[in-house]
What does this fold into?
Amino acid sequence: MTSLIHQSSTVSKSVKIGKDVKVGPFCNLNGNISIGDGTELKSHVSITGNTTIGKKNIFYPFSNIGCDPQDLKYSGEESFLKIGNSNTFRENVTISKGTKDGGMITSIKDNNLFMTGVHIAHDCKINNNNIFVNQVTLGGHVNIQDNVVIGGLSAVIQFVTIGSYSMIGGMSGIDKNVLPFSLAIGNRAKLRGLNLVGIRRNNFNKDEINKINTIHDGFINKQMNFSTNDKVEVIFQEYKSILNEKLGHIQK
It folds into this structure.
């Protein structure tokens, strides 16, 4: 099947479009853009800048992808946005490209859901299988690991890292790093324990849950000793390797 581009849409000559791509009415594609096979733009989607999009992504109306950063230091440098595969971007999602202070790239990996009105700022790094509920806002340079859920109307300040398998309650303000497997709620958010629902859904056993508890206490007390490379420790090691130590961790 060849790609289908509605006659009302504008596509610049520099755009590269894969197989089975659908571009609906009144879309604007302008820039050094690459769109992978099987991706669909419903209608009224704007994609600009140096933007690379993988396969089987879906963009709903009025999403603005690859737009200039909302950063006063941004001066038109040739920065980038990279999106992986099988992500869903609902209505009015905005995603900014990177800046020179953040490595020049905003990156999103695979299988993420961005609900209506989500904003992903410049230089954010988002891994796999995350859910951003309506109107979530990420400040610049935020790291989201894997299998994170962020509740509606929540905001995350710049440079925060949120660890894998965490749950952020709705209408929360996140101003510190969030340990993997955490449940955090409030303005400013506090740790309410482990995200036991998410942990069990992802098939962690009782011994692994006990180990998660122990490592949580170690992080908070600054006694982080890793002795093995099992599944739980690897997750915490990855978290530690990218977090901003100055922000500290959300605590009870």
User: Anything to note?
Assistant: The chain has one domain: 4-247. DSSP finds three helices and 28 strands in the chain.
